[in-house]
Amino acid sequence: MKVTEHIENAQGKTLFSFEIIPPQKGKSIQELYDNIDPLMEFKPPFIDVTTSREEYIYVDKGNGLLEKKLTRMRPGTLGICASIKHKYNVDTVPHVLCGGFTKEETEYLLVDCHYLGIDNVMALRGDAMKDEQSFIPKEGGNDFATDLVHQINQLNQGKYLHNVMDIDNKANFCIGVAGYPEKHLESPSLQSDLKRLKEKVDSGADYVVTQMFFDNAKYFEFVAKAREIGITVPIIPGIKPIAVKRHLQILPQIFRIDLPEDLINAIEKCKTSADVRQVGVEWSIQQSLELKNAGVPVLHYYSMGKSENIRQIAKAIF
Fold this sequence. Notes:
GO terms for molecular function: FAD binding; methylenetetrahydrofolate reductase (NADH) activity. The protein is built from 11 helices and 11 strands. By secondary structure, it is of the alpha/beta class. It has one domain (3-244, 280-317): TIM Barrel (Alpha-Beta Barrel), CATH 3.20.20. The chain has a 9-stranded parallel beta sheet with strand order 9-8-7-6-5-2-1-11-10, with helices on both faces. A two-stranded antiparallel sheet has the order 3-4. The model has no long low-confidence stretch (mean pLDDT 92).
């Protein structure tokens, strides 16, 4: 079932969903199951599974020589989606990236999703590689998320890359995209970023999931401005509980977001890691309660593969 259909069927009730990351290659999927199991009592209608782009590693060749190799440390997004869908009877949302993929590779991935009965995809440009100063698309790939949304929408119409086939079973993907309440780090302004979001919606996006934020006022302002320029699709807030003290430095640096002073002060006073986690849980509970009372369609949690703090939050909300 499509994410938008889940929202419609809920008839105004706020739903619970979360996002996971695939384990590194060589790791067992059981650890992932162990972290999903405690969250299933809250009946998530869908679970997002991230996709990691390629990265360079250095292989020791002996004699002091290193060979630079391109690899993916966390493959398996589609396989995990299929496995979760089968094991838990829940819809899954694979993340589909521009970065690191040609349009042909993207088309093959979408065809596989269609074969597996996966109805939803999250279309993202993806980040720059670690040794790149800015995002560089793969040769033959999509440059921007808007281009990727357009390709998916074309496939929904039965239009493949190199020919229009005689289609008797078209794909009908529900397309999610990212939104940035504090603007994308590369955008010159929030208004400019909203224009890019409008382009994604006009190209066929069906719903928006926001980047994490810690001040609900920024989400409400973002939604209001999005509605003003004609974006009418559901806008789902993304919530990330602070889990370790170094998040005070890491999250603003990576995502270019602001943390409220009250949250910073509370975390800085913490004596132990358990204290930090508890502050993160309590802050997210207050965020979630306010958002739920405002009637958001879904509360979407960035779990990073760990479930205990998400379970505590969900138990207080749902």
